[in-house]
From TrEMBL:
SUPFAM superfamilies: Xylose isomerase-like. This is TIM barrel protein. It comes from the Bacteria. It comes from Amycolatopsis bartoniae.
């Protein structure tokens, strides 16, 4: 069974909820991942536009960092409450300890809004927790993972080794074309190319049971990149519904 394919609001920051929903449907997708607190236009119109057009909201990404004392659980709860009932994607601090009382309180604050603890998703992002630490958070609390292939280039370049730790509880894989910058945790986004097809094929095999795969790129090539993602990940591609014209993906 193929996973549900979609795009992130990072691909089209300038689109409101209905416009972003229309874009993903025109591409042949059915789901979106959203980033909050970064000025993406969907926040002005909220979640109703996606629901009205039958597009699934996979998660809302927050800037919350588990284990960071600046993220007070009470404030975390207030931020999370704005998106009640939707899975919430967060980060975990570089030196996070799963048995830290602060982490327990932060997870509790998030589950008060998201619901089941499995709807709290920890991102594999460069500069944050290791894969082992994310695994420990899952083992202790039941949180799940969002596997960002860009982050894996820093945390664990082997997708097979990453999958051995995370695949069983990974909810979403994020895909983008990127170029590493020597000595930096920052990358440059670029359209998906031939080398990315190899990485995507390996990721597809390693994370074969993942429910959702989303394009998360700021390269301005959303239609072309989504077509590559669909072709490689489903091994057949998708046909976009008639009447939809993909728009530029950068804003």
């Amino acid at each position: 069974m193929n996973p549900r394919l979609g795009i992130s609001s990072a691909c089209a920051k300038h689109l409101d909820s209905e416009e972003l929903a229309s874009l993903v449907l025109s591409l042949g997708g059915r789901t979106v991942d959203l980033r909050a607190g970064r000025g993406h236009r969907w926040e002005q119109s909220g979640l109703d536009g996606f629901r009205a057009l039958g597009v699934e909201v996979g998660h809302v990404g927050l800037s919350v960092v588990l284990g960071n004392p600046r993220h007070d659980p009470e404030k975390v709860a207030k931020e999370a409450a704005r998106y009640g009932g939707v899975p919430l994607r967060v980060f975990a601090a570089e030196h996070v300890a799963a048995d830290d009382q602060l982490v327990a309180e932060q997870v509790e604050a998030l589950t008060g809004a998201a619901g089941p603890v499995g709807d709290v998703l920890v991102d594999t992002h460069q500069g944050y927790a290791s894969l082992r630490q994310i695994e420990e958070l899952h083992d202790r609390y039941g949180v799940r993972a969002v596997v960002d292939l860009e982050g894996l280039a820093f945390l664990e370049p082997s997708v097979e080794k990453a999958a051995a730790r995370l695949a069983a509880f990974t909810q979403t894989v994020h895909v983008k074309g990127f170029a590493l910058r020597p000595g930096s945790l920052k990358t440059r986004h670029r359209p998906l190319g031939p080398a990315d097809r190899v990485v995507l094929s390996r990721a597809r095999e390693a994370f074969a049971g993942v429910p959702r795969v989303c394009l998360q790129s700021e390269a301005g090539s959303v239609a072309q990149d989504f077509a590559v993602l669909a072709e490689v990940w489903t091994q057949s591609g998708l046909t976009a519904p008639s009447g939809g014209t993909p728009s530029k993906g950068r804003g």
